[in-house]
């Protein structure tokens, strides 16, 4: 059997980040646990440029290449993909993992819904990570397609044992040791970070690691206000894009995290490091619904007073700023963020206890990829 993973890069590298981590994890599992059951892991991706930024072994000129034992195909090369995937009655399409409602390329549709296709194709729909209740409701729910030969089921990553869990590779099976004097990592969307910057400049002498991306300039702009030029040069460290292994190691060495997206959020949750999630701003402030849902999952791991600090800080940071809310009083808002962030820093070691308990319980839900393998075996009796 072959697994084929589909990914469209639609927003800030998170999609390809998850798909690439998943691909490598399946290779890891196939080599260790069932080399005869899974022959190949295929990754079909439509954004090689974005892929290259997190995996330097990618060749932008190649429509097909093998990278870290994953068979990588360019979604947009119709001829190469159709030729390879139509062979042996669509053998490569026996099991498809469709990431984040990305749809399927035209050449794949032609193969799947051709009357000549004899095999039954199983499609697993991997949705976005969320702590909202619907993740449990939709997990392993069947969906209809226009052919009885193409069967589809939802598989939801999540934070409870009623979902598929998070991707947990071997290096993430244990919670990294707490580094109280580590750096502070910022990987965020665009925002006014003045309140947070003021706290970390006045309360600590830590290095500030700022990852390149859509939020980099706003983080830099805020820290420039509170650091003198010599101090800024030594404490503010811009981070270029790096591969996932390097990113993971860097993240594990930090003492505080300000994290966005899904891929890095999942690593923050597993790290046990005190973090603030900066969610992507959505219409009608729907990002606050997602933030509240995750906070509700985390609540039981903290004392009432501890949780109040985390909750207020997260909610203020995730409310829309003046860019989308002209009535926002940024000065007043940043004063309150500064106050809360001061406490967040002062109580960092105490808060880390709750974050670590949360991280430990997430591991009890199992590894998403291993849970998918178990599902495949139980559902389709692949021996």
Give a concise summary.
It is built from 16 helices and 13 strands. The chain is α/β, with parallel strands linked by helices and 383 residues long.
Labels describing this entry:
eight-stranded mixed sheet, five-stranded parallel sheet
Q: Report the total helices.
A: 16
Ranges with pLDDT <50 over ≥5 residues? none
User: What's the main sheet like?
Assistant: 8 strands, mixed
Structural class: alpha/beta
What's the helix-strand series? EHEHEEHHEHEHEEEHEHHEHEHEHHHHH
Strand line-up of the largest beta sheet: 3-4-2-1-5-6-8-7
Q: Termini distance?
A: 10 Å
Taking all residues together, what is the mean pLDDT?
92
Q: What is the approximate shape? A: elongated
Rg calc? 22 Å
Number of strands: 13
Helix content: 40-55%
Q: How much strand content do the residues show?
A: 15-25%
How does this model look, in words?
The protein has 383 residues and is an alpha/beta fold. Helix content is 44%, strand content 17%. It is built from 16 helices and 13 strands. The protein has helices at 14-32, 48-54, 78-85, 87-90, 106-112, 134-138, 194-203, 216-224, 229-235, 244-252, 263-271, 287-298, 304-318, 330-346, 348-364, 368-380; strands at residues 2-7, 40-45, 64-67, 70-74, 95-99, 121-126, 142-143, 150-155, 183-187, 208-211, 236-239, 254-260, 275-278. It has an eight-stranded mixed sheet, covered by helices on one side. The protein has a five-stranded parallel sheet with strand order 11-10-9-12-13, with helices on both faces. Helix 7 packs across helix 8. The mean pLDDT is 92.
């Amino acid at each position: 059997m072959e697994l084929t993973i589909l990914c469209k890069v639609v927003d800030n590298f998170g999609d390809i980040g998850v798909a690439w981590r998943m691909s490598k994890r399946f290779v890891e599992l196939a080599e260790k646990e069932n080399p005869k059951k899974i022959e190949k892991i295929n990754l079909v991706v439509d954004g090689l440029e974005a892929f290259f930024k997190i995996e330097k072994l990618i060749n932008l000129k190649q429509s097909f290449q093998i990278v870290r034992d994953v068979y990588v195909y360019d979604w947009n090369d119709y001829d190469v993909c159709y030729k390879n995937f139509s062979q042996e009655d669509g053998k490569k399409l026996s099991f498809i993992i469709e990431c984040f409602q990305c749809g399927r390329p035209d050449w794949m549709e032609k193969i799947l819904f051709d009357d000549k296709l004899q095999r039954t194709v199983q499609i697993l729909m991997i949705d976005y990570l969320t702590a909202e209740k619907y993740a449990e409701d939709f997990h392993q729910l069947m969906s209809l397609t226009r052919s009885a030969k193409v069967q589809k089921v939802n598989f939801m990553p999540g934070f409870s044992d009623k979902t598929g869990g998070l991707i947990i590779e071997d290096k993430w099976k244990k919670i990294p040791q707490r580094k109280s004097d580590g750096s502070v990592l910022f990987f965020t969307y665009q925002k006014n970070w003045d309140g947070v910057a003021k706290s970390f400049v006045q309360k600590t002498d830590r290095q500030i690691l700022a990852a390149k991306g859509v939020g980099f300039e706003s983080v830099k702009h805020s820290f420039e206000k509170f650091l003198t030029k010599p101090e800024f040069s030594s404490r503010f460290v811009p981070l270029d894009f790096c591969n996932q292994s390097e990113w993971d190691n860097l993240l594990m060495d930090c003492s505080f995290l300000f994290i966005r997206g899904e891929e890095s959020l999942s690593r923050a949750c597993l790290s046990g490091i005190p973090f603030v999630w900066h969610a992507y701003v959505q219409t009608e402030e729907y990002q606050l619904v997602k933030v509240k849902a995750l906070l509700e999952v985390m609540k039981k791991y903290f004392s009432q007073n501890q949780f109040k600090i985390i909750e207020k800080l997260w909610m203020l940071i995730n409310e829309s700023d003046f860019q989308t809310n002209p009535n926002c009083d940024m000065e007043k808002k940043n004063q309150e963020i500064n106050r809360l962030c001061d406490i967040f820093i002062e109580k960092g070691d105490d808060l880390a206890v709750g974050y670590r308990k949360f991280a430990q319980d997430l591991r009890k839900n199992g590894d998403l990829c291993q849970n998918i393998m178990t599902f495949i075996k139980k559902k389709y009796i692949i021996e």
